[in-house]
């Protein structure tokens, strides 16, 4: 199978995270199986489902189809610091991008306490995202605070609204410039 050269591969775990991005970048659905896949001429977005195994499989599948120059993981994360508002966007891979930086660690399931957490943010996919992508691809991980390790699940509406508000802060890393 030959791969197609694209500028940016975007990865989300949840459809609620993907919907605002699909609309913003005018992506069209090109596949529902084995993963939801959306694209335009320069951007592809894959929705993996939650967890490291789903993310790894989705990313390997996407890399079998595309050769991206940039890869972005965007999604929600829990935050151990209760003073940080829900909806706050962080970059977890680089400092100095015009947004706050925070450390992030991935865990196999949602955490309900910060007892053994040594990072500001916790999610399920960021670590495997970074590990799966080959070196020449420029990678960014952007996380939106969705909770403070409570056992309540944020609504799809809240997730969509937070991601929508975050796009203007990270979209410049997606933009294709010939």
Automatic annotation (TrEMBL):
One of its GO terms (cellular component) is endospore-forming forespore. Residues 37-94 form the Nucleoside phosphorylase domain. This is Nucleoside phosphorylase domain-containing protein. Transmembrane segments: none annotated. One of its GO terms (biological process) is nucleoside metabolic process. InterPro entries: Nucleoside_phosphorylase_d, Nucleoside_phosphorylase_sf, SPL. PANTHER family: SPORE PHOTOPRODUCT LYASE, SPORE PHOTOPRODUCT LYASE-RELATED. One of its GO terms (molecular function) is DNA photolyase activity.
């Amino acid at each position: 199978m030959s791969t197609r050269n694209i500028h940016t591969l975007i990865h989300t775990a949840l459809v609620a995270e993907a919907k605002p991005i699909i609309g913003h970048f005018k992506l069209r659905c090109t596949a529902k199986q084995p993963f939801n896949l959306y694209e335009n001429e320069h951007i592809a977005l894959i929705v993996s489902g939650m967890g490291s195994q789903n993310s790894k499989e989705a990313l390997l599948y996407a890399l079998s189809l595309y050769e991206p120059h940039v890869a972005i993981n965007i999604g929600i994360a829990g935050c151990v610091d209760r003073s940080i508002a829900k909806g706050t966007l962080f970059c977890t891979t680089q400092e100095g991008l015009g947004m706050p930086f925070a450390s992030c660690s991935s865990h196999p399931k949602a955490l309900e306490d910060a007892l053994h957490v040594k990072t500001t943010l916790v999610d399920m996919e960021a670590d495997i995202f970074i590990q799966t992508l080959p070196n020449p691809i420029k990678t960014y991980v952007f996380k939106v605070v969705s909770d403070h390790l409570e056992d309540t699940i944020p609504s799809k509406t809240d997730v969509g609204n937070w991601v929508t508000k975050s796009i203007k802060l990270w979209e410049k890393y997606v933009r294709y410039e010939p």
